[in-house]
Amino acid sequence: MNLLTRDIILTGFMGTGKTVVGRKLAELLNRVFIDTDNEVEGLAHKSVASIFAEQGEAAFRRQETDAIKGLNRYPLGSLVIATGGGAVLREENYRFFRERGVIILLTASADEIFRRVGHTDRPLLKSGDARKRVGELLQEREPTYRKTAHISVDTEGKTPEEVAREIMTLPYFTRNEPPLQG
Ligand code: S3P
After folding, report:
1. Burial of 124 by CB count in 10 Å (0-12 exposed, 13-18 middle, 19+ buried)?
2. Residue 12: CB within 6 Å of ligand 1?
3. Per-residue pLDDT tens over the stretch 48-68
4. Residue from 34, 64, 117, 122 whose mutation best tests the ligand 1 pocket (most atoms within 8 A of CB)
């Protein structure tokens, strides 16, 4: 597999920088940038926060899968995709992403994630103690994030541009086509 002909899919918890890194990476590689949350919002004509509040998480997940499947309208290898933090938890989404390209997991510690998103309007962090919720959700999701990704990149203490440039040094960008892990 070669990244020149495949999409780049960024996964990971809220606040790991999928959107900012993805946007930078798309700019550097001259590709179309897609944020799956924006795709959902565009189809629903509502914010993610409103969908959660008015229709609940299950409805959001259905709309998220529809939005992801809709990405097939783009030619393979033309996209950098930033996924919503829960997208790869659904097997059909993760299989879709695997078909399209290389899944890169972005990571950061729970403390750093809380600093980045603890005070935003993320629906899943709204009720109760947000720092505790980050820790619990991260621990619960970690095995799935690891299992579904081909490779991971730590974002702690790095700027989005540094992370994007680090991704561009991964062996998948060469023509040697090394075997993918997992
Ligand atoms: C979610 C993450 C959010 C958004 C929704 C659910 C999650 O995206 O899709 O609030 O389940 O982790 P970001 O990871 O871009 O914040």
Report:
1. middle
2. no
3. 999 999 999 999 999 999 999
4. 122
Instruction: Look up residue 19 and give its two tokens.
Output: 């959107």
Assess contact for 70 and 115: CB atoms under 8 A.
no
Residues 122-162: tens digit of each pLDDT:
999 988 899 999 999 999 999 999 999 999 999 999 999 99
Alpha-carbon dihedral of residues 166, 172, 178, 180, nearest 10 degrees? Answer: 90
Separation of first and last alpha carbons in the chain: 13
Amino acid at 131: R
Distance between CA atoms of 40 and 178, rounded to whole angstroms? 34
Beta strands in 66-161 (DSSP E): 79-82, 101-107, 151-154
